[in-house]
Write a structure and sequence with these properties.
Blueprint (H helix, E strand, L loop, with lengths): L1 H12 L6 H13 L25 E3 H7 L11 H16 L9 H13 L1 H23 L6 H21 L2 H14 L6 H17 L5 H19 L1 H4 L8 H8 L2 H12 L7 H15 L14 H11 L4 H6 L27 H25 L7 H23 L5 H28 L5 H4 L2 H4 L5 E3 L3 H9 L1 H24 L3 H4 L3 H12 L80 H9 L25 H5 L7
Antiparallel strand pairs: 1-2
Helix pairs in contact: 4-10, 4-12, 5-6, 5-19, 6-7, 6-13, 6-17, 7-8, 7-9, 9-14, 9-25, 10-13, 10-23, 12-17, 13-17, 13-23, 17-18, 17-23, 18-19
Keywords: Membrane, Signal, Transmembrane, Transmembrane helix
Length: 645
């Protein structure tokens, strides 16, 4: 399809440009001095008469070429005002797409992915938002709707979302968080564990950029430019009556939805921020330090880095950063769009998200087609042809991306998709720019030949009256409808993202309130209170312990007889996300604190913390059900450094 269009474009470029206004005046003068007959073959015959009325001259294609064509192909004299008025604001919006910090080269590839496959880009963004939604619903289902309970649910969702960010693997994120907290269950009190969790979640939320205000200003500037271009009382008289340039600009109107969507999700301030915060969380849980900003002697805890790299199948920390574009840091590209159910009625399927992502492109293509179709001469011309061709390329592009993502290697799939995007994005932007500066200003393109046929096609020399009429009624209505539908589509997308917005997209006053709630009056002690722990040889613990976590609920009875289930799963059901018996996990690189490696008594400690229900399978020698994220012995870990499991 693109090859055929390229051949057609080559034919058009080889044609001669026309100045219809000058040609119209010249033929009127020749008719007036009778040097040209009114029934000459250059005039279009409509079946009853030759269209040689000086007020409504219509020529055949051959007549136009012989009388009006310039010997040298010229572009529009006012091409720069056309570009500055209609195209430059659109390109400015492209520069305001939120781009992740993944290196300059990969950021260019992200831009090409937006331009070459906007549907998959917005589908991936919506999928990312749905991941946040489901994590939030999973946590909220076991807490409640009170403010303090919602805060704990948001904190759990933020940590799970961070694991998804680092591993690009939603199905294992919840199990990873459970496993990490199990390993510190015998060491930390519930109050301290909750404090660390909430502090980390708040830091993750504070570490994200927020450019919604700047983006809104850019969008408003674009809308004002469009209004000023259509209304002479606001923007002044244009160098020429608008027509095809409006349809060309509307073809890219989907960028409005893409820019708003990408900046609503935003991202972390750097490629290391999320990893650093999660490392600090793991280090704090293991090192039993209340202050999350306390750093041990080493710049980073090697075992935690090995976990991150094991989940991403990379062999070193530098390779992990290099792999970020295809491992979750690029929200607009998500190779694996699999979602786990949260049990909430608001869950949106991947198919539903795909259909929503199609709407901005469909709106843009249809609006551009209708505007160009109604531009005199009414019918299918060169501009409507390129809109249909390139619009079809955008509509099938996500299908090509889906097929390329079948490649097993994430890295190879990323670059194959990027190559495909370049081959689609470059022709689109080239044709849009060429169309705006006059590449289709030919007799062939003005004749609506593709709908009328070569024998019946004709060129109207004086279209100013019709364009002026369209400029007052038709064009403003179509442009307003197009941009209005784009805004409505984004509002629908924003509604989908709203639940997950509780995870990372909090208002500044909410963040401040959350900080005060976590830190109380700022005088909390900074040392962790460890829960008492005894080995099985010392006998059972006795007495009752009470923690006040809103997530786990009240705890009563002796440690050995506690009875309630996991905070993130139904009691007794076990975790549907934990590996099957015999499976391995990237969590096995985490070293357990010495006191956490025990026997049966450790199971009671985990029960008391709400991570293992009484109906769970018998624990292994590491205090877990067989295959449930059990770490390797220390000696085996030491023999397998930086190896992905």
């Amino acid at each position: 399809m693109l090859a055929k269009f390229s051949l057609a474009l080559t034919f058009v470029v080889g044609a001669s440009a026309v100045n219809l206004q000058a040609c119209n005046k010249e033929i009127q003068d020749r008719l007036a001095n009778q040097s040209l007959a009114s029934d000459a073959s250059i005039f279009h015959f409509n079946g009853t008469q030759y269209m040689s009325d000086p007020e409504n001259l219509q020529l055949t294609i051959n007549g136009c070429r012989s009388e009006c064509a310039n010997p040298d192909f010229d572009l529009y004299d006012d091409m720069w005002p056309r570009l500055l008025t209609w195209l430059f604001p659109v390109l400015l919006m492209i520069g305001n797409l939120h781009l992740p910090r993944v290196g300059h080269f990969n950021r260019f590839l992200v831009i090409f992915h937006y331009l070459g496959d906007p549907i998959d880009s917005m589908w991936s963004l919506l999928t990312k938002a749905e991941v946040w939604n489901r994590f939030y619903h999973i946590a909220l289902r076991h807490t409640g709707l009170k403010p303090e309970e919602d805060m704990m649910a948001r904190s759990y969702a933020a940590l799970m979302s961070a694991f998804d960010e680092l591993t690009d693997n939603m199905p294992t994120a919840q199990g990873d968080l459970d496993a990490i907290m199990r390993e510190s269950a015998a060491q930390l009190s519930m109050e301290d564990s909750d404090y660390i969790l909430r502090e980390t979640a708040d830091e993750l939320a504070d570490s994200r950029t927020n450019e919604v205000l700047r983006t809104t200003i850019i969008i408003l500037n674009y809308l004002w430019t469009v209004v000023a271009s259509l209304d002479p009382q606001i923007g002044g008289e244009q160098s020429s009556k608008p027509g095809g340039r409006i349809g060309t600009a509307m073809f890219l109107s989907w960028i409005v939805s893409a820019v708003l969507l990408s900046n609503t999700l935003s991202g972390f301030t750097s490629r290391r921020t999320c990893l650093r915060v999660v490392e600090r969380y793991l280090r704090t849980m293991k090192g039993r330090k209340r202050d999350l900003h306390y750093f041990p002697n080493s710049p980073h805890l090697v075992s935690q880095s090995k976990w991150i790299m094991a989940k991403n199948q990379t062999s070193s920390l530098s390779n992990y950063f290099d792999a970020q574009p295809w491992n979750g840091s690029v929200y607009s590209y998500r190779k694996n769009k699999r979602l786990i159910p949260s049990g909430h009625k608001a869950d949106k399927s991947t198919l539903y998200l795909l259909l929503v992502a199609y709407f901005p492109i469909l709106i843009a293509v249809v609006c551009a087609f209708v505007i160009l179709y109604e531009t005199p001469n009414v019918g299918l011309g060169c501009r409507t042809l390129w809109v249909m061709t390139l619009g079809a390329a955008l509509l099938i592009s996500p299908g090509l991306t889906y097929l390329l993502n079948k490649v097993r290697s994430k890295k190879l799939a990323w670059y194959l998709v990027a190559v495909k995007d370049v081959f689609i994005a470059v022709p689109i932007m080239t044709v849009v720019i060429l169309s705006s500066i006059g590449i289709f200003n030919t007799c062939w393109c003005w004749s609506a030949v593709y709908s009328l046929g070569i024998n019946d096609a004709f060129v109207i020399l004086d279209v100013l009256d019709e364009r002026e009429k369209n400029g007052k009624v038709v064009y403003p209505a179509l442009v307003g409808l197009c941009l209005g539908l784009q805004v409505v589509t984004f509002v629908a997308m924003h509604h989908i993202m709203k639940p997950g917005g509780r995870v990372f997209r909090l208002a500044e006053d909410e963040k401040e309130k959350a900080y005060k709630d976590v830190h109380d009056d700022g005088t909390r002690d900074t040392e962790l209170r460890s829960a008492p722990y005894e080995s099985p040889m010392d006998g059972q613990r006795s007495g009752s312990v009470s923690y006040g976590s809103p997530l786990y609920g009240p705890r009563s009875g002796s440690v050995s007889s506690v009875s309630y289930g996991s905070p993130l799963h139904d009691p007794g059901s076990g975790s549907p996300l934990l590996p099957r018996p015999g499976a391995t996990s990237g969590m096995q690189d985490l070293e357990l604190p010495p006191a956490a490696i025990g026997g049966q008594d450790e199971r009671h400690s985990f029960q008391g913390r709400g991570f293992i229900s009484p109906a769970s399978p018998p624990v292994s020698r590491f205090g877990r059900a067989p295959g449930a994220y059990a770490p390797l012995p220390a000696e085996e870990n030491s023999q397998r450094p930086f190896q992905g499991r």
